[in-house]
Amino acid sequence: MRKLAITTTAVAAVALLALAGCSSRSADDSGSGDAKGFDKGSLIGVALPDKTSENWVLAGGLFKSAIEEAGFKADVQYAGQSTPVPDQQAQIASMSTKGAKVIIIGAKDGGQLGTQVKDAKAAGATVIAYDRILTDTKDIDYYVAFNNEKVGELQGQALLDGLKAKFPDKKSYNIELFSGDPGDANAPVFFQGAMKILQPKIDDGTLKVVSGQTDIKQTATKDWLAQNAQNRMDTILQGSYQSTELDGVLSPNDTLARAILTSVKSAGKPAIVVTGQDSEAASIPLIMSGEQYMTIYKDTRDLVKKAIEMTTQLSKGDKADTTTKTNNGSVDVPTFYLPPVVVTKDNAAEAYKNNPDLEKLTQQ
Ligand code: BGC
């Protein structure tokens, strides 16, 4: 009787999934990641995007040494700035041809590598998405990242907290919203995370986006380029803030936060509350002086270390450890998330205690 009930439920669940046009398959049902393992000395490929922020600059060197320390051969490549997508496509194809056992990808555009990862899988490689997920492909075995939605939530909450602290007498605040590059799968996740916190406050009138630009298509910053954010901020200040005060800006990362601050300063506007992400060396002094309200600490050393731990597990013929799954539009990808840490002037010294290069910047 009991067995029948379970079976009926299972059948109903399958029928429901079929109706919804969904697949219950997950990336690791394909048998990936549980292969025979591979020898020390094998080639590990790492394809990184163009160097749009310090985390990517750091990742290349860290990957090379971590791969070699783990006993493998490293092929670490960056996409160039002028043709990043074709660069990455060619680099990944070449890694497959050279017989890389694992290909770790920080995608410039996670929706444009489908053919390359399909070929990589066919050639016997395991594909790990690093920091940015690959979308709409089933040819992805693992994803390792800091929890991106959480990053957005922390930014949204910090913007609210910062506004209350800086303008204790105001009941409502004028803000503007920025998001990252549309090709980066993280950009909408950061934005949606932040909007989870900010939208109810926009709805109840606590926050006002004076430009009216709240759609991600309007807030996007092509290629994560500082110049693009600065130009957009200039235009918004011109158009909407001639006789209105701007109180705060949601910026998705530190590079763009500094560009936004430059724009606000050159327009002769008073100081604002601006968010950030990455704990870039150039932003930490601004956080200590109060010019940039907050950042997020996502220690690149930890993320690279985790990706190489996964690689070592795979080399032994084991599955890599994961903590959750992330749907990429095609499959549920086994995922390992690390926790992002919010940093303001108040906890910076403490937050960077394990990182002397950053900690010393809090003391100047
Ligand atoms: C990363 C951020 C970074 C941004 C721009 C994102 O995918 O998660 O840390 O600021 O890319 O490079």
From TrEMBL:
Pfam families: Peripla_BP_4
Superkingdom assignment: Bacteria
Ranges of residues in domain Periplasmic binding protein: 44-318
Any GO CC annotation of this UniProt entry: outer membrane-bounded periplasmic space
Subcellular location: Cell envelope
Major location (coarse): other
UniProt keyword annotation of Signal present: yes
Keywords carried by this UniProt record: Signal, Sugar transport, Transport
Signal peptide: 1-27
Molecular-function GO term, any one: carbohydrate binding
Entry-linked InterPro entries: Bact_Solute-Bind_Prot2, Peripla_BP_I, SBP_2_dom
Protein name: Putative multiple sugar transport system substrate-binding protein
Native organism: Schumannella luteola
Upper classification of the organism: Bacteria, Bacillati, Actinomycetota, Actinomycetes, Micrococcales
